[in-house]
Design a protein that fits this description.
By secondary structure, the chain is an alpha+beta fold. The protein is built from six helices and 18 strands. The chain has a six-stranded mixed sheet. The termini are far apart.
Length: 297
């Protein structure tokens, strides 16, 4: 057992964590141990967003400068106490077990295996065909974060006109994700069509700023709204997940519309320590997403 190996008691489960000295972000000295401790601290705030949602994980076993891969299926070697939900993709003939993370032990187990990023579906088990969120994925492409911020504010105005509330978080990079929590009963096709229509109206009104995704996500020097994100099997960076940016760890962080309007936020500054301090000071700004019950027309 390595000197950095420990057994953590997390609720009713124990998880062995190891190689905490491994450098995950060599430029800043941020280690695997730092990542594990961040996820342990943020778990009480983050886990409600994971509840009953399949998770797609992005692994960086040797840190952000090493090889990475995505994992959708729950691995055979995962402990029995990790929940799964079976899903039947159109591309295969058999059921696929998808991981469900609803405990700190599950979060830490995957992080210890090398997962840095956690991405969530917009539908809940057991019925994965009905999303309870409409997601506007604002992709920066070749634009700046200030352009993305401006596009988000225009979207916010549009949502208010439609009588629904949207909640913003950074992607963990230069993008923004705007969530519209929904009442039960919508299909992915209905939600995707609504997001596409809203995006098309914005692209028509602000053609120099906003584009609707067509094939390739990036549309030149404009902020792109990727409406196809609202499809079964697609996933979006979880609130409070770390993202494997090159220079330093950044977190997908909930923001207020007042912060976006003021233009004082730089996503690169939203490091794990900053985010933990924000949560202590401001609480969970994304919490309404868990409880809102809205309808779209």
């Amino acid at each position: 057992m390595s000197a950095s190996s420990e057994t953590w008691q997390l609720g009713s489960q124990t998880v062995q964590v190891s190689h905490q000295e491994k450098l995950y972000w060599p430029r800043t000295g941020f280690t695997k141990g730092d990542l594990l401790h961040y996820y342990r601290q943020i778990a009480p705030i983050a886990l409600p967003y994971f509840k009953d949602r399949p998770v797609t994980l992005r692994f960086f076993p040797q840190g952000v400068d090493g090889v990475s891969y995505y994992l959708r299926d729950c691995p055979d070697y995962a402990p029995d106490w990790l929940r799964r939900v079976n899903y039947h993709p159109k591309t295969v003939a058999h059921l696929v077990p998808l991981p469900l993370i609803d405990t700190a032990a599950g979060l830490i187990w995957f992080a210890n295996e090398g997962a840095i990023e956690f991405h969530l579906w917009s539908s809940l088990a057991p019925d994965l065909t009905q999303p309870d969120q409409a997601i506007f994925d604002l992709d920066p492409g070749a634009t700046t974060f200030q352009d993305v911020r401006e596009a988000a504010l225009r979207l916010h105005d549009k949502l208010e006109q439609a009588g629904v509330k949207g909640y913003a978080k950074t992607s963990g990079g230069r993008g923004l994700h705007i969530y519209v929590p929904l009442a039960a009963g919508y299909t992915f096709e209905r939600v995707r069509s609504w997001v596409k229509a809203m995006g098309q109206q914005l692209a028509t009104t602000y053609p120099e700023l906003i584009a609707l995704a067509r094939g390739s996500t990036h549309q030149g020097g404009r902020v792109t709204i990727d409406y196809a994100q609202n499809s079964i099997g697609r996933n979006t960076a979880a609130p409070y997940t770390l993202r494997a940016s090159a220079l330093q760890p950044a977190v997908s962080t909930p923001l207020t519309w007042e912060e976006l309007d003021a233009g004082t936020i730089d996503p690169a500054d939203l490091t794990p320590q900053v985010v933990l301090e924000r949560v202590q000071r401001l609480g969970d700004l994304f919490a309404p997403v868990l409880h809102a019950d809205q309808h779209i027309t």
